[in-house]
Design goal:
The structure holds 2 protein chains of 2 kinds. Chain A is mostly helical. Chain A has a domain of about 150 residues. Helix content of chain A is about 75%, strand content about 5%. Chain A has a two-stranded antiparallel ribbon. In chain A, helix 4 runs parallel beside helix 8. By secondary structure, chain B is α/β, with parallel strands linked by helices. Chain B contains 11 helices and 10 strands. In chain B, the strands form 2 sheets. A 6-stranded mixed beta sheet of chain B has the order 6-7-8-3-9-10, sandwiched between helices. In chain B, strands 2-1-4-5 form a 4-stranded antiparallel beta sheet, with helices on one face. In chain B, strand 1 and strand 2 form a beta hairpin. In chain B, helix 4 crosses helix 5 and helix 4 runs parallel beside helix 6. The relative contact order of chain B is 0.17. Classes of the chains: A mainly alpha, B alpha/beta. At the A-B interface, helix 1, helix 10, helix 11 and helix 12 of A face helix 2, helix 3 and helix 4 of B.
């Protein structure tokens, strides 16, 4: 399987995961969306030197991974292209930040700590979004966005962009296969044809996405996802799940849980 | 009473050549009509006017007495089911069930009604066994059947099929013909496959350069070699064999 086929397969696999009938998949999409947004806001709000506080936020993805019955190893593998990018962003911090800071009784260079917190922030937010889309179909996410009164046009854009990725990848696959079959022995695509290929790709994918949009319109799509929201009413479990996590996340944000726990254990065994 | 009517319809894209010129035709509620013509004759454009994907520059299109215009689009679209030439444009959900359910769900049916419609449509189209299959794992023939089920689930009064036999192997093509003949709705089928038109339509309409050239019964038109060849077509293969 070539890289593009692999990407299409993985995207489709994500759709399959979202379609499953697991406990986590059955939670109301609005609850999952709100918790994801809240989690991201809290993670981003940590100070660049508050490494211990940030580490405590790892609890959310770890527990949700278990509840979702998703393979952590496979998920990390699937995020292999995004996570290095997230890490690269933090790599320049040690060069500019030369302040010394105290972390868990150790004096460390601030640049190192801020680099690690930045990387962790990136990883946690990517994981939170991944957990949302691996347990919720795009239609349900769009339905939840409409419940939050996001304008129809923006929700439709999100929906079409998601579907567009599939179309775009399939078109790329067709074009590159066609090219490779007529350029045997050549590695990659010669730069002279990049321009025409990108142009062709754009035209073809516009054509295909117009077809999909027309097909949606002809089957009653009007920018609303009423059926998603009609089908999924908030049940007691959703409320409990939402309130539980709101309390836990706020506690994790306010209190230095790791310091408190380490102090407790030191006291216990010391 | 007619189900579909074109009344002196003309169409052209902005700054473009005329695609349809003064088209007038009507289709009855139980009729099966073939639209035949060479590439670029205007078949697909004509079909796209019925659900209002394109609106005429002149003249009027009606579907079940509803004039197709910007105000009445959603009403008109409920009456017709459009099966695209390219099934990949038709199918966009993860599984066949969800794709077939997309229309009924949008039209506000309860989940029980949706399930009933989906299962009936898939059974009617001979693709019930595919209901949990992922779209991207399907063959061309399977996609075509599911595409048909997506519109049948909306229970349209008329099916519009654009080149339905393209990319089908002989057995799937034969199955599709049997299926189309068994569906109790009006049909408008645009195709180059004159053998298919012979098998499914009682009335072909020959179009060339956006004009209706001939409109009559199947045997008269499809056996007229001179007429067909003059407009970029050839006799159906079955007549060559004979």
């Amino acid at each position: 399987m070539n890289d593009i086929s692999q990407s299409i397969f993985e995207l489709n696999h994500l759709d399959t995961l979202a379609e499953q009938n697991q406990w986590m998949n059955r939670r109301h999409p609005l609850v999952k969306l709100l918790l994801t947004l809240f989690y991201i806001i809290l993670v981003v709000s940590f100070h660049k030197y508050d490494l211990m506080g940030l580490l405590a936020m790892m609890a959310y993805p770890l527990i949700v991974f278990n509840l979702s019955e998703l393979s952590f190893r496979k998920s990390i593998y699937r995020l292999r292209y995004i996570l290095p990018l997230v890490c690269i962003i933090g790599l320049v911090n040690p060069l500019f930040d030369k302040e010394m800071v105290l972390v868990m009784g150790l004096v460390l260079r601030g640049g190192i700590i801020s680099m690690i917190t930045l990387i962790l922030k990136g990883i946690f937010t990517v994981l939170a979004v991944y957990l949302l889309i691996a347990t919720t179909t795009i239609e349900k996410i769009c339905g939840a966005l409409r419940l939050l009164h996001m304008p129809k046009i923006m929700v439709t854009q999100i929906m079409l962009t998601y579907r567009y990725i599939f179309l775009l990848l399939r078109e790329v696959e067709r074009l590159t296969t066609s090219y490779q079959l007529r350029a045997p022995g050549q590695k990659g695509i010669h730069f002279k044809v990049w321009g025409s290929m990108v142009g062709m790709l754009l035209l073809r994918s516009i054509d295909r996405s117009e077809g999909v949009y027309n097909s949606m319109l002809l089957r009653g799509y009007d920018g609303n996802f009423n059926y998603v929201n009609r089908k999924m009413a908030m049940v007691q479990t959703d409320w409990i799940y939402l309130i539980f996590w709101l309390i836990i996340l706020i506690l994790l944000r306010i209190f230095p849980v790791i310091q408190l726990l380490s102090g407790f254990f030191l006291h216990l065994f010391g | 009473m007619n189900l579909l009517t074109f009344d002196h319809v003309s169409f052209q894209y902005e700054n473009g050549l005329p695609i349809l010129q003064d088209i007038s035709l009507s289709v009855g509620p139980d009729e099966s009509v073939g639209l035949i013509g060479a590439n670029g004759a205007g078949k697909t454009t004509l079909m796209k006017m019925l659900p209002g994907l394109l609106l005429p520059n002149e003249g009027q299109v009606t579907v079940a007495d509803i004039v197709v215009n910007k105000k009445n689009l959603s009403q008109a679209r409920r009456k017709v089911g459009y099966v695209f030439q390219d099934s990949d444009s038709q199918l966009f959900m993860a599984t066949a069930y969800d794709d077939v359910a997309f229309g009924p769900r949008n039209y506000g049916h309860t989940e029980e009604e949706v399930a009933e419609r989906v299962l009936t449509a898939m059974e009617q189209c001979g693709c019930l066994h595919l209901k949990d299959k992922q779209i991207y794992k399907m063959s061309g023939g399977e996609k075509k059947l599911v595409s048909l089920a997506t519109v049948m689930a909306m229970r349209p009064r008329c099916l519009l099929l654009d080149e339905p036999s393209v990319a089908l192997d002989p057995r799937n093509r034969r199955n599709l013909i049997s299926l189309l003949n068994s569906l109790p709705v009006a049909k408008l089928i645009a195709s180059h496959d004159l053998d298919m038109i012979w098998d499914t339509c009682g009335r072909p309409i020959l179009i060339d350069q956006g004009k209706i050239i001939a409109d009559g019964d199947t045997k008269t038109i499809l056996q007229d070699k001179e007429l067909l060849e003059a407009h970029g077509l050839e006799l159906p293969l079955r007549l060559f064999k004979e």
